[in-house]
Request: fold
Amino acid sequence: MSRRRKGDPVSGWVCLDKPPDMTSTQAVGRVRRAFHAQKAGHAGTLDPLATGVLPIALGEATKTVPFLMDADKAYRFTIAWGRSTASFDREGQTTASSAARPTLAEVKAALASFVGEIEQIPPAFSAVKVGGQRAYDLAREGLAVELAARRVVIYSANVTAQPDTDHIDIELSCGKGAYVRALVRDLAAGMGACAHVSSLRRTRVGRLSEARAISLEKLEDLCHSGQFLEVLLPVETALDDIPALAVTQEDAFRLTQGRSIVLLPRQSEALQAKLSSGSRTVSAFEGTRVVALCEMRAGRLNPTRVFHLS
Reply:
């Protein structure tokens, strides 16, 4: 006899405006408890000091987390010159100091070399896994962490203000896997300066922007008063960029049973035209309800993730 899961079968996405001094895991726990949800997860770790958009999936939406993990992101952050730290943020131990204060023009010129596809080594204090463990756990134990460089994409990096000679504000748009702290580390090193991130805010994940984000305090108040539907986004929120196919009730039933369905030639052609290079993933809908994520192959849709939504 299987155990009954604790909590309610709540499914959907929450676009949380994460407060500072809270880990992403702690934020997920607070949201899950507010909804009394059975299951929850997040799409992309935010550092404890960082604020801003943290997409949190509840219930069946957790099956779509990888799609928002892969989404483009945008950040607003401040560089503080004069001190480098082990974690490259303001709370890390000082590792070096310098009197160098790059000018506004120098920073703008140096930033330009980071736009495009670049090689970047993630910070030791990051969520990257090393031998099954998170790098930040190893780094906090004082262990040496060596991470391999990987290719990331920076779409834009622009200076927005220079409050004083010690600080400079930047807005960044990037692809999956890029680290702001690593960018600041490399930017400072290239300019012969010491620096760290003094403030960081994520302003967008995919199509979820800070304009849609809700504070934890307001979310908990709404949930407490039974108005949680006001902030719960549909499961398919993470599937905006995936081609969708409307299916019949009969085909929807087959897919939920884990069985494939046959596509009409015109359906195959229409989906093929919408698929991005190398992708075979299609979402199947019965009316407005997402039924399954499928792989299109040889004129058939084979379900890979089935959604159990009422």
User: Anything to note?
Assistant: The CA atoms of residues 13 and 57 lie 5 Å apart. The longest helix spans residues 24-35. The chain has three domains: 12-70+208-237, 73-205, 242-306.
